[in-house]
Amino acid sequence: DTEVTQTPKHLVMGMTNKKSLKCEQHMGHRAMYWYKQKAKKPPELMFVYSYEKLSINESVPSRFSPECPNSSLLNLHLHALQPEDSALYLCASSQDTTYEQYFGPGTRLTVT
Amino acid sequence: LAKTTQPISMDSYEGQEVNITCSHNNIATNDYITWYQQFPSQGPRFIIQGYKTKVTNEVASLFIPADRKSSTLSLPRVSLSDTAVYYCLVGDTGGGNKLTFGTGTQLKVEL
Question: Fewer Cβ within 10 Å of end Cβ, chain B: N or C?
Fold first, then answer.
């Protein structure tokens, strides 16, 4: 199984809502990543988990809160988002942080 | 920080070889160079990764000069289905530059 799955595919939320994005992989990878991608722009790294520990936080606002419950799962908890946070949120995994990343299809988030 | 730049767009015809160059002047010793392909509304897909010299796999080749300040992705005999955005990714989460995607190159392949 060489697939990274993400749920939901689409999400519309108000600025006062709390929601979560989920990512799962069963490739035995020990590094997992969250990226944000705006239209016609490259993905921007948000967080990196290595061996279930947060190793990189690219100064992302606290309204985004990552969680890695186990080596196969990665969550991104969302609270009090702004309209400018609307984007495609991509999850990726890799064998470790020096290997190529496998990306999921993304969650298209719209904040109203 | 490895600032990574690419041509905005390239056009080609089916059957031709396409070379896309990525400039990364501030590449660090620990940094790897990885190329990805992305179709609209999909996640990027891994193409090839290298550290120095030349790497070849079943779909592409990657050329990296000795100074590693640039890299070139070579796609042999492109087809219509190769129309996509191509990104280089430079960096290392183990202590080098942070992972930075290039600006992306929109490749359009025509008949």
Answer: C
Q: What average pLDDT score do residues B72-80 get?
A: 97
A87 touches chain B (CB under 8 A): no
B92/A97 Cβ within 8 A: yes
CB-CB: which of A45, A50, A88 is closest to B99?
A45
Q: What is the pLDDT of residue B96?
A: 44
Q: Which of B39, B90, B59 is nearest to B48 (CA)?
A: B59
CA angle at residue A42 from B40 to B99, to 5 degrees? 135
Peptide bond between residue A61 and the one before it cis (omega within 30 degrees of 0): no
B34 touches chain A (CB under 8 A): yes
Name the 3-class secondary structure at A83: helix
A102 touches chain B (CB under 8 A): yes
pLDDT in tens, chain A (112 residues): 669 999 999 999 999 899 999 999 999 999 999 999 999 999 999 999 999 888 877 889 999 999 999 999 999 999 999 999 999 999 999 998 888 899 999 999 999 9
